[in-house]
Amino acid sequence: MTALSANQRGILALTGGMAAYTVNDAMVKSIAHKYPAGEVIFVRGLMSALMIGAVVVASGHARHLRRATDRPIVVRSIFDGLSTAFFISAIVNMKLADVAAIQQVSPLILTALSVLLLREAVGWRRWAAILTGFAGALCVVKPAPAAFDVWALVALGAAIASAFREMQTRRVDPSVPTTVVALMGSIGILLAGAILAAPVGWRPIPAHDLAMLGGAALFIGIATYLVAHAFRGVEMSVVAPFRYSYLITSGIAGYLIFNELPDGWSALGAILIVGSGLYALHRETVRRRQAAASPDEPRQRG
After folding, report:
1. Most buried in the list 68, 93, 122, 131, measured by CB within 10 Å?
2. What's the CA angle centered on 85, arms 59 and 195, to 5 degrees?
């Protein structure tokens, strides 16, 4: 396969994954207000775990389940549960496009965490991009007392938990199949739902709403696979920017299904977040190319 065709495949897979995430979000948002958030998280997580578990068995990866309790996988699963709990709580109370915009801060948070926890070198340009991205998030959060939205902070919590999850993903042994890691993530999600649901009890879910949650579980599984597939054997600098298609699909779904339109501050915040993310990605690409061209010279920070 040529580099061009690989990149095209990656772009299609990534945009398809973002669209699948949006379908999941819309399905969950449409029914989550009827039931306790923990119950919704648990039921969808259980369905996802059953689906992914079937894939693990069918793909012959069951023998790798003995690695499922490795510390990085367990910690990753905890953050997966936290991220999902925060995210679903946020989309019930916020516009889809606003939550989607805040989630795009996660790669910038991951860069900052890499400096603080992994001692990676990041220059002033990428620090400026990180700060700009957080400024964009503040535009969506609206910290002024008259317009403050506490649920935006919950959405930001989801982005932070997601960044910590990806840090743990880096530590997972590459020999462990992605399906096993995804299965443990689903188990972490259903456990988080069970903990949240325990204090408030359970409500019966009729068949049509169960079918909706089953569809959401299916689309979240499709999204997880497509995103993982998108970054295999491609140029990151070409493919990665298409993750921002999530903002477009979320905005369209929010308008068509829930009659939602972002306000001016949220639109400005989304522009700042996307712009800073693209610039940070550009600087990382420049740094890697310089390192590849001069492997014996110190890397330029950027």
Report:
1. 122
2. 90
The whole-angstrom separation of Cα 43 and Cα 194 is 9
- For the stretch 176-210, pLDDT in tens is 888 899 899 999 999 999 999 888 878 899 999 99
- Contact of 63 with 216, CB cutoff 8 Å: no
* Residue 91 to residues 15, 84, 138, 288, Cα–Cα distance (Å): 21, 11, 17, 37
Instruction: Among 38-47, 218-227, 290-299, name the one with the lowest average pLDDT.
Output: 290-299
C-alpha separations of 143 from 132, 138, 147, 151, 264 in Å: 16, 7, 7, 12, 15
How is residue 300 annotated by DSSP?
A: P
Please state the pTM of the whole predicted model.
0.82
Amino acid at 253: A
